[in-house]
Design brief:
The complex is a heterodimer of chains A (568) and B (425). With 568 residues, chain A is α+β, with helices and mostly antiparallel strands. Chain A contains 17 helices and 21 strands. Chain A is globular and about 95 Å long. Chain B has 16 helices and eleven strands. Classes of the chains: A alpha+beta (568), B alpha+beta (425).
Chain lengths: 568, 425
């Protein structure tokens, strides 16, 4: 072997071609499309039976119906109880489940090839003979309502909910989840009705990937699905969502949050858009990965966050572009500045050839990795078929990525990234966030975590007032369950910025990024108590030389009030 | 049926470089992808009191640059070549791995060899990564509901410090570490003769062997690391602790038992008993608690496989207002039932099909093959166990499962951790 230098990265070996054969396709007389992809690498078979109706097709008075129907398909049929079905499936070492998304309802099954006939029979059983038992529906209702409650404690959910509303308006894509009241209204009759209307062969596609004999499989498919009666499926006509005309700032107030969850979102391409690959590459340069621009800027250079990304969600009838990060509250404004810098830069300047090459190398390189497992390969085939992509989509995927040019990236950035027509959603402490973010939009709204609108003025009242002077040593008395506990604050002030320390009997904390607005002080003291880090959030106001306010922390159930004066 | 199931063995070739690096090649060119896994024989089990968290700190240090790969470049190189990578630390080992297009095999070998040969252990990197570990601890343990419960119950189950302390370690210990300590740790544990390298996927065997020799052949061997003792006393009494979790929205509990080492007949039997109890919707506890009683929101269980004494856990997050002790009684009743009557014939059939299914699925990705082979090579000195382990597990009898459940689970030898929410509303 020739002398190899260990000093520099080695050159790759000759590329190894990756050949994906084309799938076999046919349509039964009743309209059921069948796609079969023989994959004999291992004795496994995967099924997807997909229907072209999803959560977006829920009737307006029955939100959450499709999702409930899908979940309950495997909870009881004419021949099996929920338990008997789970037993039967797991005794084969197999899996069978169903779920819905905005656009589709998909039943998934996977099995060892030797139990192929059994699992296909069970798939047919849950498609044709679900009974939606009242007891199971009841359990579903109660569990889902608990989950919905839990979701509202998650900042990501709250941000996603507002972003979807702002992007999609009246379009059904604006609903990210049903409400508890919707769940309470679900009935057995409604589930059976939507099942009857949507589960028809001409609305479906059966995709099989695995170690099978095609002829005998087709015979079995005909036996189970051949007699299925077709009838027309109507999709509700809904107006396409439109790009907003100017920026909006929506804050979800979550008092005491240590972080601000930022989502910037605008309408973008649908999944079958011819620009899909150009947008994919553009998004890779801008923010899809940990070597993309926004990550390098907000995390690596500025250290504002653990991660900052952009994402394209291209669905069947519309899609969106999002930039997201969870940042320290004090750098919310700085983070927005960097986000907008990057969103503008990708539109206004050509990307470099090197950046383009890196993004394309990544996308073409990971493609075969995604096809390694049968599940991965199946998911690729499912997207091709459900979104109506060309038959050679998988075979030409890498060529399409490779063909994207610098000019393409710039063009699709201008069409899909809209820093002047974007929704800015931030979940966190509204009082802290508002002054930092308000200059990015002329329309501003604030909600609480239950989705109830709040008055913006109540958060902005002191804004613009001259910062009062908080500097000095404060002897304060904290009300702890009726007892007076002494604490002290030593503050230094530079304009509206506060630093200093908090001293308590439990431990002392550092204040590094406190803020003053008018006569209001807000600060977080990072304190070590018995080896644990605890953030105390301090909110105070100054009146007649006295400092009054509250202290809260995750470890104390309710915020504690304090009052006191400067020392000496 | 399942007894007659035949899976062709994986192609395994193993050899050792002159410097002691154990190499395993698993050729499978069905997809043009190659996976590399490097396993160092160092985990939290090697740490002594006052020096905890080192193994994990090192996992961070390994991404901070080496002689020819600058800080953070490792990741960039892999990304730009269209690959994925990571590193993890457990009680047993520290591993580093990447999956890349087959043509990028030289890059993967160069990256791994450069840091094995010449890691940059500097004061700046040390300070920097100490902070990163503290941030990680805040994010993943301190600031997560239920984030600390597994570390807490480990301390209850294990009496030997080598087993009981957490992988993330003590922040005070990390603060006390000097650059010299860390350099010494690297010299001892990150030596080629203390590691296993596994290559799985599409490659030409001769080319791969030459490349491995080129990149790793001249890294010097080191004296073997000090021997460790992970022995544990058999437990004789129940163990209880209440933990106030500031972030937990609901009460929860975790029950754990100390059991024999991985791959021992008793461990295998208990691993299967565990599957019957908590694995899948038809499992005994899921049907009793999530379905029947409707008293549990989340049910989970798993075995923690170690080369020394190991452990098995069952935990639950009950629905609001449910009686935790009643739920625990149901769990103990099911265990007692298995300990008295053993699994049914139907359950054995289910176990066998699950085992076959798990084994086949694990083979699908080159990275999961590489990691499994690396474990057998490092822990057992025999990478071909990947081809025979299914048979070993299939041979476990209902009576073995019954008697192991009776001996280890149906007893007072359990640790119980109650999680009490202590935050605001």
């Amino acid at each position: 072997m020739a002398q190899v230098s260990l000093r520099t990265a080695p050159r790759p070996l000759a590329p190894v071609p990756f050949n994906i054969p084309q799938a076999f396709k046919t349509t039964l007389e009743n309209g059921l499309r069948v796609v079969i992809f023989e994959d004999s690498r291992l004795p496994l078979v995967s099924y997807r039976l997909a229907f072209m109706t999803g959560d977006a097709d829920d009737p307006a008075d029955s939100i959450g119906l499709t999702s409930a129907m899908a979940s309950l398909l495997t909870e009881g049929t004419e021949n099996y109880s929920s338990l008997a079905l789970a037993e039967k499936i797991e005794r084969l070492g197999a899996g069978l489940s169903a779920s819905s998304s905005d656009d589709f309802t998909i039943l998934s099954a996977s099995t060892l090839a030797l139990y192929n006939s059994e699992i296909l029979g069970l798939l047919a059983e849950v498609v044709f003979k679900p009974t939606f038992p009242e007891t199971e529906l009841d359990l579903y209702r109660r569990n889902t309502v608990e989950n919905l409650k839990f979701q509202r404690s998650q900042p990501n959910f709250l941000a996603g909910e507002q972003a979807a509303r702002l992007i999609y308006g009246r379009h059904p894509y604006s609903r990210v989840s049903p409400k508890a009241a919707d769940i309470e209204k679900l009935t057995q009759g409604k589930l059976a009705e939507i099942h009857r209307r949507h589960f028809v062969p001409n609305n479906g596609i059966l995709i099989v990937v695995g170690d099978i004999d095609r002829e005998s499989l087709m015979a079995e498919i005909n036996e189970h699905f051949g007699d299925w009666q077709r009838h027309e499926v109507s999709h509700a006509k809904v107006a396409s969502p439109v790009l907003r005309e100017k920026n909006v700032l929506t804050i979800v107030d979550r008092p005491g949050s240590a972080q601000a969850n930022i989502v910037l979102a605008n309408l973008a391409i649908r999944r079958d858009d011819p620009d899909y690959f150009a947008v994919l590459v553009m998004n890779q340069v801008l923010g899809a990965g940990a070597s993309s621009r926004v990550f390098m800027n907000l995390r690596e250079e500025k250290g504002y966050t653990y991660g900052a990304y952009t994402r394209m969600d291209a669905k069947r009838n519309a899609g969106d572009f999002e930039a997201t990060a969870e940042v320290r509250t004090a750098v919310t404004g700085d983070s927005l500045k960097e986000f907008f810098y990057e969103l503008n830069r990708i539109r206004d300047e050509d990307v470099s050839e090197a950046e383009l090459a890196d993004a394309k190398n990544y996308l073409t390189g990971v493609f075969p990795l995604r096809a390694e497992t049968q599940e991965g390969l199946t998911n690729l085939i499912v997207s091709q078929e459900l979104y109506g992509l060309p038959d050679d989509y998988l075979q030409t995927y890498r060529d399409h990525v490779a063909a994207v040019s610098v000019a393409d990236v710039r063009r699709v950035a201008k069409q899909n990234v809209h820093p002047e027509k974007i929704a800015i959603v931030i979940v966190g402490d509204a009082g802290e966030i508002l002054p930092q973010a308000k200059d990015y939009a002329s329309d501003i709204e604030i909600f609480d975590t239950d989705g109830i609108p709040k008055s913006v003025e109540s958060y902005a009242a002191e804004d613009g007032d001259e910062a009062a002077n908080f500097a000095g040593s404060w002897k304060l008395s904290l009300d702890f369950q009726g007892q007076k506990v002494p604490i002290s604050l030593t503050l230094e002030q530079d304009g509206a910025s506060i630093t200093g320390k908090l001293e308590t009997v439990l431990g002392n904390g550092e204040i590094t990024a406190g803020k003053v607005r008018g006569n209001k002080l807000s600060a977080t003291a990072n304190t070590e108590i018995q080896g644990q880090n605890v953030d105390f959030v301090i909110n105070g106001s100054l009146a007649d030389g006295a400092l009054n306010g509250t202290i809260s922390a995750a470890i104390i159930p309710d915020s504690l009030t304090f009052t006191g004066d400067r020392e000496g | 049926m399942s007894d007659k199931f035949n899976l062709s063995p994986l192609d395994i070739e193993q050899y050792t470089l002159k410097n002691g690096l154990r190499v395993v090649l698993n050729l499978d060119d069905s997809v043009p992808v190659v996976a590399l896994a490097v396993y160092y024989d160092v985990g939290s089990r090697n740490e002594r009191e006052g020096r905890t968290g080192f193994a994990h700190l090192f996992e961070h240090m390994m991404f901070q640059g080496s002689e020819n790969v600058k800080k953070a470049e490792h990741f960039q190189y892999v990304m730009k070549a269209g690959g994925t990578m990571n590193g993890t630390t457990s009680s047993e080992r520290t591993n580093y791995f990447e999956t890349l297009p087959a043509s990028e095999l030289p890059l993967a070998l160069w990256l791994e060899s450069d840091r094995m040969r010449s890691l940059a252990v500097t004061q700046e990197n040390l300070d920097n990564q100490r902070d990163a570990v503290k941030e990680e601890k805040r994010l993943r343990y301190d600031n997560q509901p239920y984030g600390q419960i597994f570390d807490l119950i480990s301390e209850m189950i294990y009496k030997n410090f080598a087993n009981s302390h957490s992988t993330i370690g003590s922040m005070d210990d990390l603060d006390d570490a000097t650059v010299e300590d860390v350099q010494e740790f690297f010299r001892i544990y990150y030596a080629p003769n203390n590691a296993v390298l596994v290559l799985s996927g599409a490659f030409e065997t001769e080319t791969a062997k030459q490349l491995i020799e080129t990149y790793f052949g001249d890294i010097p061997a080191q004296p073997l690391p000090p021997a460790i003792d992970v022995e544990e006393p058999r437990e004789v009494a129940a163990n209880y602790k209440e933990w106030e979790d500031k972030l937990a929205p609901f009460p929860a509990f975790l029950v754990g038992w100390k059991i024999p080492k991985r791959r021992s007949p008793e461990f295998n039997a208990l691993y299967l008993a565990g599957k019957l109890l908590y694995d899948g919707e038809s499992s005994r506890l899921y049907q009793k608690l999530v379905k029947g009683e409707e008293s549990v929101m989340q049910l989970f269980g798993f075995t923690d496989e170690r080369r020394g004494p190991s452990s098995i856990y069952v935990g639950a997050i009950p629905k609001p207002e449910k009686d935790l002790s009643k739920i625990r009684d149901i769990i103990m009743t099911e265990i007692k039932h298995i300990a008295e009557h053993g699994p049914t014939a139907d359950e054995m059939q289910k176990l066998h099909n699950k085992l076959i299914n798990d084994t086949v699925r694990l083979r699908q990705s080159s990275q999961s093959r590489a990691q499994n082979i690396a474990e057998y090579a490092l822990y057992d000195g025999d990478p071909t166990l990947i081809n025979t382990e299914l048979e070993t597990l299939m041979a476990v009898t209902p009576e073995q499962i019954r008697s192991a459940a009776n001996e280890y689970l149906n007893s007072e030898n359990r640790s119980l951790l109650d999680v009490v929410p202590a935050g605001k509303g």
